[in-house]
Amino acid sequence: MKLHKIIETNDTENSFIAYETMQPYLKSLYVYYADEFREEPVLMVESIFNAVQYVKIVDVETFTMYLDTLSEDESEVIRFNSKMLGDLI
C-alpha cells in the first residue's frame, strides 16, 4: 500500500490498518502526523490477532477518548500495546 493511501485510510473514521503495512513508512508518518497534530502522535493498537495487529495513528486526546468507551480489560490491552509513534522510529 502506498503512503498516500495509508494516510487516507488512517484518516477515515473507524478504519484500522495492519501494522505490517505501515511499518515501512513509520518515519514519514511520524513527520506528517506530528505536524498535523502539533503533538506526539500515538500508534493505537485496536486489535491483535495471531499474526496481525490493526493500528491507527491518533492524537493523545482521541486515544484517551477511545479508551473511555471501552471496558477496563479492553482498555488495558490497548493501553499496553499502543506506543508513542516517535518511540518506534
Describe the structure.
This protein has about 90 residues and is α+β, with helices and mostly antiparallel strands. It has one domain. The protein is built from five helices and four strands, in the order αβααββααβ. Strands 1-3-2-4 form a four-stranded antiparallel beta sheet. It starts with a helix and ends in a 5-residue tail after the last strand.
Defining key terms:
alpha+beta, 4-stranded antiparallel beta sheet, 5 helices, 4 strands, globular
In short:
The chain has 89 residues and is α+β, with helices and mostly antiparallel strands. Helix content is 48%, strand content 19%.
Q: Can you lay out the helices and strands and say which pair or pack?
A:
Blueprint lengths: L2 H8 L6 E2 H4 L3 H12 L4 E7 L4 E6 L1 H9 L3 H10 L1 E2 L5
Antiparallel strand pairs: 1-3, 2-3, 2-4
Which value, in Å, is the CA radius of gyration?
A: 12 Å
Class of secondary structure makeup: alpha+beta
**How are strands sequenced across the largest beta sheet?**
1-3-2-4
Shape: globular
